[in-house]
Specification:
mainly alpha, 10% strand
């Protein structure tokens, strides 16, 4: 009894570090809350039910809900991953043989950087070099927590992004796939470079984004993109299973999570606020584009793969996986498997970086790779297009900009007015190509929350209409772009996001 009981695992073998690193991958998702803040959802009316979380997020309020997918769950889940990665790094330091653990160090740093990046996307403003010393960052853990009464400060957004960048850059040269039993569930080399490409796009380091995307896509990008023609005849379940299959070349990193995102975004289990047929018809998958329109005269393969009803239209890329703990009573845990990094999204990161550095021909070439992998050659009287700078300009400039406050559904448009946050976009060809890039990104990342980051980055103003109420308008640089911290985190002394 004179010895303090301590059942913690002693990290003294490489196998133990490998096992603990599995826990450094987050088991939470910010997809639901980010998607509900975005323009991918609409109000179906007061006759339909919804959850408290969805309603508060749609209204862009400070969210008091604390259950699954809430800001509190997101905060705790990602910071738990950060703590685990930091624990691994600290214990490796004690081994006095960093060379032997180079791969594990790299993986831990990537896990920490990724979780901090997701926390930044959720709880901070988008990167803006002109305001990075003004905007609040988040605490970055470099040593394990040993005192529950530790007081943290948030620092600045500039400090936060610099810390994320440092972890990524130190990790990339040492990524080691040799000890991964299931590489697509770890930061394998391509997943690491895809992460670096997206981070550097948001960080406005466009040349680095292109460099890292090149390492993912290789000399023949079309060969590594998702061949959606193979999905054409599949039913919803088989489609959803194949979409997140580790053998699918396009999938680079798959992240399982405890989440209701599929149930609350892709079904009518909570039908009031959803991606509905109006948005699909006027803004996303069925909108008039060079590849077609609607579901019957459209070469876009996704156009015939929408399920649900007019209140909730779902593309089956983010299906629910239910883990039964008691089949008789039907109880268990709700999961999603999120294709967090894919070659298709990395391609669009590169296309955007090309466009923003005025390499417009290269950007258009990437858009055509996306069209070839996402559209079939002919549907009815419609032929898959080959995009050019001229055809993109002609198409975009015939459209009206969507107003920030919608008066009716016919006001909707895929063309959005840009108010870039900390960068510039020239009128004409550059803007037109970026309109296509962001539209493709919107389709590619549907239900994954990334649309909200694009809205924040480009300062796109939009509104959430609510039945019998004034619309809620999201302005360029809107401080609600930084979702409010959980109440218990604020009560513990961390500065809250200003409003």
């Amino acid at each position: 009894m004179d010895k303090l009981p301590d059942d913690r695992v002693v990290l003294d073998k490489i196998e133990k570090f490998n096992s603990l690193l599995v826990s450094a991958y987050p088991q939470v998702s910010n997809n639901l809350v980010m998607e509900m803040f975005s323009d991918n959802v609409a109000d179906n009316g007061r006759s339909y039910e919804t959850s408290i979380l969805k309603e508060q997020a749609y209204r862009m309020q400070d969210i008091v809900e604390t259950g699954m997918d809430s800001p509190r769950a997101v905060w705790n889940g990602f910071y738990n991953s950060v703590a685990t990665a930091t624990e691994v790094l600290d214990n490796i330091r004690l081994q006095n043989d960093s060379a032997a653990y180079a791969g594990q160090i790299a993986e831990a740093k990537l896990c920490r950087a990724y979780s901090m990046f997701q926390l930044a996307n959720t709880f901070c403003m988008a990167w803006n070099p002109d305001k990075a010393d003004e905007y609040l960052g988040l605490p970055y853990l470099y040593t394990p927590e040993t005192n529950v009464n530790t007081t943290y400060t948030r620092g600045t957004l500039r400090e936060l992004y610099a810390n994320i960048n440092r972890d990524i850059e130190e990790a990339l040269p040492a990524v080691d796939e040799s000890y991964f039993a299931t590489p697509k569930y770890h930061f394998n080399k391509k997943a690491a470079y895809a992460f670096a490409a997206r981070f550097n796009l948001y960080y406005m380091q466009y040349d680095k984004c292109i460099e890292y995307a090149n390492l993912v896509l290789g000399s023949d990008p079309l060969s590594v993109l998702r061949p959606l023609i193979n999905y054409k005849t599949l039913g919803r379940k088989d489609f959803g299973n194949l979409y997140v299959k580790s053998s699918e070349t396009a999938n680079l990193l798959l992240l399982p999570a405890y989440s209701l995102a599929s149930r609350f975004l892709c079904t009518t289990a909570s039908p009031r606020f959803l991606h509905n047929s109006i948005i699909a018809s006027y803004e996303t998958i069925w909108v008039d584009m060079p590849w077609g329109t609607g579901s019957s005269d459209n070469t876009l393969l996704a156009s015939t793969k929408l399920y649900g009803n007019s209140q909730g239209v779902a593309y089956p890329k983010l299906e629910e996986f239910f883990e039964y703990t008691d089949k008789v009573n039907g109880s268990g845990y709700v999961h999603i498997v999120d294709p967090e990094f894919t070659t298709d999204e990395t391609l669009l990161c590169r296309a955007e970086a090309y466009a923003l550095t005025n390499k417009l021909d290269e950007a258009v070439a990437d858009l055509n790779f996306w069209v070839k992998s996402h559209c079939e050659e002919v549907t009815g009287e419609t032929t898959r297009p080959t995009l050019t700078k001229e055809s993109i300009k002609t198409f975009v400039e015939k459209l009206d900009y969507a107003p920030s406050v919608l008066e009716g559904n016919r006001d909707r448009s895929m063309r959005k007015k840009f108010n870039p946050q900390g960068f510039t976009v020239a009128e004409g060809e550059q803007e037109d190509i970026l309109q296509f890039v962001l539209h493709m990104r919107r389709l590619e990342t549907l239900f994954q929350g990334m649309r909200f980051m694009d809205l924040k980055r480009y300062g796109i103003e939009y509104s959430h209409r609510i039945a019998n109420e004034d619309p809620i308008v999201f302005k360029a640089g809107d401080l609600r772009g930084a979702i409010q911290l959980p109440a218990d985190v604020i009560n513990a002394g961390l500065a809250k996001n200003p409003r």
